[in-house]
Design brief:
This protein is mostly helical and 173 residues long. It has helices at residues 30-38, 58-68, 72-76, 96-102, 130-144, and strands spanning 161-163, 166-168.
Length: 173
């Protein structure tokens, strides 16, 4: 008989204020934005501002997703690849590596994380609707599902292990 200790994840505590000059500590999103800035998910506009009420475009959303997946270093190695979109020249230079890796990553259903639109266009500066942003996040989560999680210890023969209401079969490895 053995035990598996699973540490529950604490809810996100959005404390702090980001360094952006156009975000006040009293703004409802300030703590969340501070976390995103501290984790290097968002970088602002280069002039010390974030423009929190401005819509997010496809390249900005792609960059955040790639950073959230921990793939920024891998993306920066792909800065000289042309993913083949007809409007590739419209992608800002800073965003090229993020678009390159996001169009190469595959989800569990073998589709890419970021995709173009009909006509082989990426439309990099197009603002995202909420449903499009949700789709980006869904693809990121789907992509992360293919990762293998290892738990050390022993499981008795015939035992079942349930994690998040899903029964998993123990592997001898």
């Amino acid at each position: 008989r053995g035990y598996i200790n699973v540490m529950p994840q604490r809810p996100l505590e959005p404390l702090g204020k980001p360094s952006f000059t156009d975000v006040k500590a009293s703004d409802w999103y300030a703590g969340y934005l501070a976390i995103a800035q501290n984790q290097h998910l968002v970088k602002g506009n280069g002039d010390g501002t974030f423009k929190p009420l401005q819509a997010i475009n496809r390249v900005e959303a792609t960059a955040i997703i790639v950073r959230a997946m921990g793939l920024e270093d891998a993306a920066l190695k792909m800065k000289n690849i042309d993913p083949g979109f007809l409007d590739y020249q419209n992608i800002p230079n800073w965003a090229v590596p993020y678009i390159n890796i996001a169009t190469q990553l595959r989800t569990t259903d073998n589709k890419t994380l970021a995709r173009g639109v009909p006509g082989n266009l990426f439309m990099p500066m197009k603002n995202l609707r909420r449903d499009e942003a949700a789709l980006f996040v869904h693809r990121m989560i789907d992509n992360n599902r293919v990762q293998k999680i290892s738990i050390s210890g022993e499981v008795a023969s015939g035992a079942t292990v349930t994690i998040n209401n899903q029964t998993v079969m123990p592997d001898t490895d």
